[in-house]
Design a protein that fits this description.
Elements (H helix, E strand, L loop, with lengths): L3 H4 L3 H18 L6 E5 L14 E6 L16 H4 L3 E2 L12 E7 L1 H4 L3 H11 E12 L4 H12 L18 H10 L2 E9 L8 H6 L2 H9 L6 E8 L27 H7 L10
Parallel strand pairs: 1-2, 1-4, 2-3, 4-5
Antiparallel strand pairs: 5-7, 6-7
């Protein structure tokens, strides 16, 4: 069994991280606000291109450096951590963050829907959530499913990390809609086949160009941005409705005679 951190050191993992870094840099460079949070995955600095004054990296207890270890002795990725917290209980007040980034966080969460609810709670109105995940409907997902079937009858080395559960983008869309998020954009990437070596991945480089054009939704990874839309109350009922004005109804002219008297022209006056 291979963990997500170890898998990112393999050629397919580095290939995926390179694609995700480009997506995060392009999507977050022009997202403005004051407070941004990256939740999980210290292997990538998802907020590197963002310009908010307050940016934090929050890690679960399993990925946090040991308290007895000095900060300078910790790995560089983990040394950036600002706080240790569970993804289902963030230590932030309601509507206090402008941006929350979830790089493979939902896949590793014991309760991904509860994590998404907590993100919705801490985001301000018009705040953004950015999610990166592995697509089960891809060549990589198909190979992982076949390996799981083979492992019932014998040993087979898994291709993808087995920590957590992969969440399809169609399922994620439903969750976002239920939590009052409006989908801003979704993109897919990494169409090369599920091979292990750097040389084999380089041989299929052309598939990234062809896949983006002909089968985009079958990329090995997806990248989702959504905006929190808190809909206000609407006044309904007969009290709040204006009475309709019938077409062709006569319109009265108020104080027509008085207007003529003030101008010195009586009702019988005619212009020369």
């Amino acid at each position: 069994m291979i963990g997500l951190h170890d898998w990112f050191q393999t050629p397919p993992g580095r290939y995926l991280l390179d694609w995700e870094r480009g997506q995060f840099d392009a999507a977050l460079a022009d997202v403005f606000g004051y407070h941004a949070l990256q939740l999980g995955l210290p292997d990538i600095d998802a907020l590197a291109a963002n310009r908010m004054p307050h940016r934090w990296l929050a890690l679960p207890a399993a990925l946090a450096p040991d308290a007895a270890t000095a900060a300078d002795a910790a790995p560089p990725a983990t040394a950036r951590a600002a706080l240790v917290t569970a993804s289902t209980a963030l230590p932030f007040p309601e509507a206090s963050l402008d941006l929350v980034v979830l790089p493979h966080t939902l896949e590793l969460s014991p309760d991904p829907h509860a994590t998404l609810r907590e993100v919705q709670r801490v985001l301000v109105h018009e705040g953004r959530v950015v999610i990166a995940g592995l697509n089960p409907a891809s060549l990589w997902g198909l190979r992982q499913w076949r390996i799981r079937q083979w492992r019932r009858f014998g040993g087979a080395r898994p291709y993808l990390p087995e920590a957590g559960e992969f969440i399809g983008h169609w399922r994620l869309r439903d969750w976002l809609r239920l939590l009052e998020f409006e989908l801003d954009s979704i993109s897919f990437g990494c169409w090369r086949p599920a091979v292990r070596s750097e040389r084999s991945l380089a041989r299929f480089r052309w598939m990234d160009r062809v896949g983006a054009r002909w089968w985009p939704i079958f990329g090995a990874a997806y990248f989702v941005t959504a905006v929190k839309r808190a809909h206000g109350p609407k006044l309904v009922g007969a009290v709040w409705k204006k009475a309709p004005v019938p077409a062709g109804a006569p319109v009265s002219i108020a104080n027509r005679a008085g207007a003529g008297a003030r101008t010195g022209k009586g009702p019988g006056h005619e212009p020369r």
